Structure formats: structure tokens, C-alpha cells
């Protein structure tokens, strides 16, 4: 959903590596990284080395203006869209704006399930493409299935029934973290690097499942990536189908799958939005105002993400006004072990063992400090609670936990300070200015929480120490 700013474009004659090279290797997931080699990725090594031009069977379609495309979309179905709003291009691509003053609680949009793009529609359409479970490397989930469906619909061009919708989609999606160039890895915070890993792994996973079909239909990576991004930046949760072919897999219950909602998905995101949305019976979409809104204002919903790092991962944008976001400070095992050694005076091996055992019980890398400065780390709690003297009371334990966490965030402050200096001081090629802004916004958002939590946690620690 971000404005298209280009990441490296994959060309057939560039040196190429396997798709896996885009996924950082395990040792690279450690925080505070060293510079990585510059690398370009390429889907099909044979076509890279032989410099073969892949035959494109995409239709070229007469380009319409934004206004014409929006009009086609509005005429496509009998939408229940309030006359008090308009769709137009704004600061964040297309968006929805108030034409008149709006009151709190007004319904602005309603779409019954049949006007949304449901997974059942995608499965049905793909049954002629996927005839056997062996046509895919692994069963497809909802996002994979919708991506493949959208890809083929895009190829049909204006012969697709969905064309009035698809024609409004942005042309390129190149900046989300799944296309973050390797030479810029060092400019990411440790958390952003983790999110990059997740974003890339999800994308590559999807590509690999579909590889045979993509190759059969000569789908270039860029083409697949666009369809995939259209889906993942617009997908809203919806129920999984009751019956489906063997090549499809998803959760069984409510909200375990997803759908696309034309018009609904033109609302842009704010952490504190002025509109609210609801998925009703069978996947119907409803949009209402959450406050009174003056004419001319843009209408926003929340996509359910509050952190710059998560917005970057899923939607390809970040807020530069970092007071708007609610970033977390993610903690990692190595840092916790350092805090254990420094604060408790224990041997590294012992700290390692305690932390590793605690980590085995949790799914995450070590936990986090949330934007309210609450410590959400089982590992940190375990480490600082471990092997306490018998006369140790709850106040002393809590104080020790805060001191341990403070050690971590002082270090993180130093790291973020250095990182921001490096970002500022580096020589950025013009094509990467968007990346610079994104890396800065992610680091600054975390820095704000670090500064706030330092003061707050000092006070907490002192209070508990006094009562111990
Ligand atoms: C569901 S679409 C919204 C419609 C989109 N603006 C369009 O032109 O089609 C989500 C995408 O919109 C953009 N977007 C939404 N909210 C934004 C924001 N607050 N700042 C920057 N971009 C935003 C991002 O590109 C995001 O991936």
C-alpha cells in the first residue's frame, strides 16, 4: 500500500543468486549487524545466466486517468457509498475524503458479502489452473490463493470481471521490507531486521509453493510480487471456506482466512483513526465515522498496526511523526545474557543457560518492553528472578528486574544513537531516499520509547528499592 519508490529492479542480465539469498541467514538475525555483501536476487537462475527474455503475455491496456478509473469502480457495482464522501488521490495514493461535514456514527459505506472478493471465488477460478495437488509444492493458504487469483485476473486486463477494481491498483510495490536491498541491512534496527526476515520468508514461502505454476505460465518475479503485495496490503480477515480442494489449506474457524474489499480498501491508515470498520455476517463490510469530521478531511481507519516497524513490514510505509506510533523495544537473548552478567555478576555460561531454558518455553526471541514501559519478557523475568537469596522480597526482585531492563535500554539508546548518526552520515543514492526515511522513522520511533521508558523505569526501580 505504499507509494511506489523503487528497490533494485531485477534484470535478466544481472548476476543472480537463488531466491533463498533474499532470506537473511540465521546468524544474520543477530542484532547489531555487520555490513552484508550487495546482492541482487533472481527467481530463475537459468534465465538469469542465459540472458533470455521471458515472453510476456500480459495485456497492454489503454491507460485511463485517476478520475476515469474511480468512476469505473463506482459504476462497477451498486455500492452503498455515502454521497458525502469522495475517492481521490491524496498524500497516500488514493484515499477517501469527506465532501461535507460528517457526524459521529454516520454509516459511510456498506458492501454485502457478494460485493467483496471472497476466497471461494478465488478457489473456483483457480480450479482450471490447479488440477492436481502436485501442481503446487505445498497446499496454498488464503493469501497464496488470492495472490494467484489476482495475478491471473491482472493478466486478463480489461477482460477481467474485476478490472474496474484492479485498474485502480498502484503500479509497483517495491519498498516493503521484503524488497529491502541487502546493502542497506545495516541501517535497520534489530527489530526491523527481524521483521525483514519475516516479511522475506513469508514472500519466498509463497513463491516456492507456487513455483511450478509460476514457471509454467512464465510469471516473472515482479509480476508475482505485485499480485502478492496487492493481496497482503489489502487483505482483511474473513471466514475460511467449509469445502475446498486438496491443494488448499487454511484454519477452520471464523476469521481464519481473508478476502479483499473493493472501495473499503481505499481507506488509508492512522493509528488514531476517525472511522471504524466492521465485518458482518458472511463477510459484509461496513464503515462508519468514529467522530465528527470536517469537510475536506481524509477518512482513516486503523489497520491494526501501531508500530512503524510493523507498518513497514506489511504496508510499506512508516510515520515520520513518531508521536503517532506506539513502538515496542524488542529484547533479544544475547542482550539479556549481557544484562544478566553485568547486573547479577554471574558467569556468562550460567546466564546463557538460564536464558536458553526460559527461551525454550516461549516462542519469541526474548520479549519486549511496550510503549507504556511494561516489561513483557518471560526470559528477562526468569533471569532476574533466578536463584534469589531466600530473604529476597518481591520489591527487591521487581527492582532487580527493572535495573536489568534499564541496562538493556541504556545500551539500546546508545545503539540507536549511533545508528541514526550512521543513517544521517551515509551517502544515499537518490533511489534509496525512501529507504533512508523508513530506516530513520523506525529508529526514531524506538528512540522515543527508550527515552520515555528510561525515566519512568528509573522511578519504578527507585520506588521498589526503597520498599525492599
Ligand atoms: C488498503 S490500501 C489503501 C489505498 C491506497 N492508498 C491506494 O492508493 O490504493 C493500503 C496502502 O495505502 C498506503 N497507505 C495507507 N495508509 C497510509 C499512510 N498513513 N501513510 C502512507 N501510506 C499509506 C500504503 O501504500 C498501504 O500499503
From TrEMBL:
PROSITE patterns, per this entry?
SET (PS50280)
**Coiled coil spans:** none
SET domain span = 83-304
Q: Domain of life, per the record?
A: Eukaryota
Provide the protein name. Oidioi.mRNA.OKI2018_I69.PAR.g8665.t1.cds
Matching entries from InterPro entries are given as: SET_dom, SET_dom_sf, SETD3_SETD6_MTase
Matches recorded under CDD domains = SET_LSMT (cd10527)
Q: Name one Pfam family in it.
A: SET
Amino acid at each position: 500500500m505504499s507509494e511506489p519508490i523503487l528497490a533494485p529492479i531485477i534484470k535478466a542480465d544481472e548476476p543472480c543468486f537463488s531466491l533463498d539469498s533474499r532470506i537473511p541467514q540465521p546468524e544474520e538475525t543477530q542484532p547489531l549487524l555487520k555490513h552484508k555483501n550487495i546482492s541482487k536476487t533472481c527467481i530463475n537462475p537459468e534465465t538469469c545466466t542465459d540472458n533470455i527474455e521471458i515472453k510476456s503475455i500480459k495485456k497492454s491496456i489503454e491507460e485511463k486517468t485517476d478520475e476515469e478509473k474511480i468512476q469505473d469502480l463506482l459504476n462497477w457495482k451498486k455500492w452503498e457509498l455515502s454521497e458525502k464522501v469522495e475517492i481521490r488521490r491524496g498524500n497516500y495514493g488514493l484515499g477517501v475524503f469527506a465532501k461535507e461535514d460528517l457526524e459521529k456514527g454516520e454509516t459511510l459505506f456498506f458492501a454485502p458479502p457478494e460485493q467483496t472478493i471472497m476466497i471461494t471465488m478465488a478457489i473456483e477460478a483457480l480450479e482450471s489452473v490447479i488440477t492436481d495437488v502436485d501442481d503446487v509444492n505445498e497446499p496454498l493458504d488464503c493469501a497464496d490463493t488470492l495472490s494467484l487469483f489476482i495475478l491471473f485476473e491482472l493478466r486478463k486486463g480489461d477482460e477481467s470481471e474485476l478490472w474496474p477494481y484492479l485498474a485502480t491498483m498502484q503500479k509497483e510495490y517495491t519498498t516493503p521490507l521484503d524488497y529491502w536491498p541487502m546493502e542497506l541491512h545495516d541501517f535497520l534496527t534489530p527489530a526491523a531486521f527481524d521483521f525483514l526476515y519475516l516479511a522475506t520468508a513469508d514472500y519466498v514461502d509463497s513463491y516456492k509453493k507456487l513455483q511450478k505454476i509460476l514457471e509454467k505460465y512464465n510469471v516473472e518475479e515482479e509480476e508475482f510480487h505485485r499480485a502478492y503485495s496487492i493481496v497482503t496490503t489489502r487483505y482483511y480477515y474473513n471466514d475460511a471456506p467449509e469445502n475446498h480442494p486438496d491443494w488448499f489449506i487454511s484454519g477452520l474457524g471464523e476469521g481464519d482466512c481473508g478476502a479483499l474489499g473493493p472501495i473499503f480498501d481505499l481507506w488509508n491508515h492512522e493509528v488514531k483513526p476517525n472511522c471504524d470498520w466492521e465485518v458482518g455476517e458472511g463477510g459484509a463490510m461496513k464503515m462508519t465515522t468514529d467522530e465528527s469530521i470536517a469537510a475536506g478531511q481524509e477518512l482513516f481507519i486503523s489497520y491494526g498496526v501501531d508500530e512503524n516497524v510493523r507498518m513497514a513490514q506489511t504496508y510499506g510505509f512508516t510515520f515520520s511523526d513518531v508521536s503517532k506510533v506506539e513502538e515496542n523495544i524488542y529484547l533479544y537473548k544475547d542482550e539479556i545474557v549481557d544484562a544478566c552478567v553485568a547486573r547479577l555478576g554471574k558467569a556468562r555460561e550460567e546466564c546463557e543457560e538460564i536464558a536458553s531454558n526460559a527461551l525454550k518455553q516461549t516462542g519469541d526471541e526474548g520479549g519486549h518492553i511496550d510503549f507504556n514501559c511494561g516489561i513483557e519478557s518471560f526470559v528477562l523475568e526468569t533471569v532476574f528472578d533466578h536463584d534469589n537469596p531466600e530473604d529476597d522480597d518481591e520489591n527487591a526482585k521487581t527492582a532487580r528486574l527493572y535495573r536489568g531492563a534499564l541496562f538493556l535500554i541504556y545500551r539500546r539508546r546508545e545503539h540507536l544513537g549511533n545508528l541514526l548518526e550512521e543513517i544521517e552520515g551515509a551517502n544515499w543514492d537518490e533511489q534509496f531516499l525512501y529507504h533512508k526515511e523508513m530506516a530513520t522513522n523506525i529508529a526514531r520511533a524506538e528512540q522515543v520509547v527508550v527515552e520515555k521508558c528510561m525515566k519512568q523505569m528509573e522511578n519504578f526501580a527507585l520506588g521498589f528499592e526503597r520498599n525492599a
